[in-house]
Specification:
The complex is a heterodimer of chains A (120) and B (403).
Chain A lengths: L2 E6 L8 E6 L2 E8 L2 E6 L14 E9 L5 E13 L6 E3 L4 E2 L2 E5 L2 E7 L2 E5 L1
Antiparallel strand pairs in A: 1-11, 2-3, 3-4, 4-10, 5-6, 6-7, 8-9, 10-11
Chain B lengths: L6 E4 L7 H4 L1 H9 L8 E6 L6 H4 L6 H10 L22 H4 L1 H9 L4 H13 L3 E5 L12 H20 L5 E6 L5 H11 L5 E7 L12 H10 L3 E4 L15 H22 L2 H4 L5 E4 L4 H16 L11 H5 L3 E3 L9 H10 L2 H4 E2 L13 H4 L6 H16 L11
Parallel strand pairs in B: 2-3, 3-4, 4-5, 5-6, 6-7, 7-8, 8-9
Helix pairs in contact in B: 6-7, 8-9, 9-10
The chains are: A mainly beta (120), B alpha/beta (403).
Chain lengths: 120, 403
């Protein structure tokens, strides 16, 4: 395992992300709501660039106390979306939303001084 | 501490190019040695509406041509459309950001659609592709039969002149104006020998039964010419049954099987495989599970109701196993043995032909076939290219340039 420099923490704005090529691996490093997350950039579906698509909150069907459908809204869970086919992943866990048994490989992030590294 | 560092790049959604978008596909192509064998894509698309100003010039009727030209770019026009948020609310973003790709393609010497198509073909490792339109897939639902016929002839002529005549790696099964049987016959007569025409395609969403006597001379002509007829699936959210669905996932999952299941049932029950034993028939973009399911369903009923299908000398599945099926959108169940059984039922090694459907939202890569653990190398290569090459009369030598 080695530590791969992502950049200075201050230069990776909240909501931004970087793709780090670490040897033969591509890793997506996200900075969101004050935390860093790092996942394999290879989608579990057909191998697309999983970390390079849209980021969007989860969609929720609103069901009231009588079990009646009352429309849709966005929830609090942040997803990132593979741009090839729309496979969605939970930003906090890397779980595939359609089947949470499937997870993108997660990498550790370490901060040394002002610099952010991904361990891979 | 001196840390090793390779490369760090930002993610900029709006900076889009097809080779970059498909970089991982090119990695797969190199890793699996696609350069060593032929890959033929039997179903891909372009956006012909981006060239309607050129296509409309080919409309033969001066009145329809004038109406089409006047309506171009306006709120309503002469062509029908279909509700459907196919890009999943922007999550599949290549449609949104492809304008820059188009600008770059315009700067080249070739037609933009040739450049754009070759870009993704090479990136995936595809040698030849069978190109189809996109919005025109719904033209069979147009209330004016003469408009479907006029647009079909214009589009076919434009495609032959601008694309097929100038790029040997792009072929097409040309649009058959099925709602007008006489026009369908004339289309085969007029376009059957054009360069790059490898067959004819019926857009499946429509309400004309395939066993109508009016079509028999067209089937006979296709059989004589050795050109396949294909049925390209799509949905209609205006279909009475499908109107009950409320999400695109539902109308797509059902709709892309629905019309092909009806056409296939009519095709077999009315003995068309017996009447035209050498006519090659292909079913496009319904996935695979519908076929194995329908085989079992029809076989079961046939044993009790042979009088409803007296032309059949064998069970319906016998005839269905001699037809061709495009792969995409290929269902890949967790239990691969289910998939293996489907492959066996449709005689996949000789009858299955790989398709990408690129650039549409649910496209498939060649690896969907190449990575299947239950297929031998020969079967993989048949499905990915050799079966289609035999059907379309293409050479077996790879011609792609994987970046």
């Amino acid at each position: 395992m080695a530590e791969w420099l992502v950049g200075k923490a201050a230069e990776i704005k909240d909501g931004d992300r970087k793709i780090v090529t670490a040897g033969r691996r591509e890793i997506g490093v996200f900075h969101k709501d004050g935390a860093f997350y790092a996942y394999s950039n290879t989608c579990l579906h057909q191998g697309g660039p999983a970390c390079e698509g849209m980021m969007i909150n989860n969609v929720v069907d609103v069901i009231d106390r009588e079990n009646l459908y009352q429309g849709q809204t966005y929830g609090d869970e942040v997803h990132f979306v593979c741009p090839w086919h729309g496979y969605e992943y939970d930003l906090k866990t890397g779980e595939c939303i359609g089947d949470r048994k499937l997870k993108l490989r997660k990498y550790e992030i370490v901060t040394r001084g002002e610099d952010v590294y991904v361990v891979a | 501490m001196d840390m090793p560092r390779n490369d760090v790049r930002p993610v900029e959604l709006e900076v889009f190019s097809t080779p970059k978008h498909l970089e991982h596909a090119s990695e797969q192509a190199r890793a699996r040695n696609y350069q060593d064998f032929l890959i033929v894509d039997v179903d891909s698309h372009h956006y012909e509406n981006e060239h309607y100003h050129e296509v409309f010039q080919y409309i033969e009727s001066p009145v329809i041509k004038s109406e089409a030209m006047q309506g171009a770019g306006r709120r309503t026009g002469i062509l029908n459309s279909q509700v459907g948020y196919q890009n999943t609310g922007g999550r599949v973003h290549r449609q949104k950001f492809r304008d820059k790709d188009r600008e770059k393609a315009r700067a080249g010497g070739k037609h933009t659609d040739i450049t754009l198509t070759l870009d993704w073909m090479d990136a995936m490792g595809v040698d030849y592709t069978c190109l189809f339109p996109t919005p025109m897939l719904f033209l069979g639902l147009h209330p004016q039969v003469e408009v479907e016929t006029a647009m079909c002839r214009a589009y076919n002529a434009w495609l032959c002149d601008k694309i097929l005549a100038n790029e040997p790696r792009i072929v097409s099964m040309l649009y058959l104006p099925f709602n007008d049987p006489e026009a369908a016959y004339r289309t085969v007569k007029d376009f059957g020998d054009r360069k790059g025409c490898v067959g004819f395609m019926v857009t499946s969403p429509r309400y004309k039964p395939v066993h109508d006597n009016a079509y028999m001379k067209t089937y006979r002509l296709l059989e004589e010419m050795g050109k396949p007829i294909s049925f390209h699936a799509a949905y209609s959210w205006e279909d009475r049954a499908l109107q009950m669905t409320n999400r695109f996932i539902s109308v797509h999952a059902l709709g892309f099987m629905w019309f092909n299941m009806i056409h296939m049932t009519n095709w077999v029950v009315n003995g068309l495989p017996v009447r035209f034993p050498k006519l090659k028939v292909m079913w496009i973009e319904s996935g695979l599970t519908w076929a194995s399911s329908l085989m079992q369903r029809l076989d079961h009923s046939f044993m009790m109701r042979t009088s409803d299908a007296p032309l059949l000398k064998e069970k319906p599945s016998h005839y269905m196993q001699q037809m061709y099926y495009s792969t995409q959108p290929m269902e890949i169940p967790d239990d691969r043995s289910v998939m293996q059984a489907t492959f066996k039922m449709i005689n996949a090694e000789t009858q299955l032909v790989w398709s990408s459907d690129y650039p549409h939202w649910d496209f498939d890569l060649p690896s969907t076939i190449y990575d299947l653990p239950f297929l031998e190398e020969k079967a993989k290569r048949n499905i990915l290219g050799a079966n289609a090459a035999r059907l379309f009369g293409l050479g077996l030598k790879p011609v792609k340039k994987i970046p």
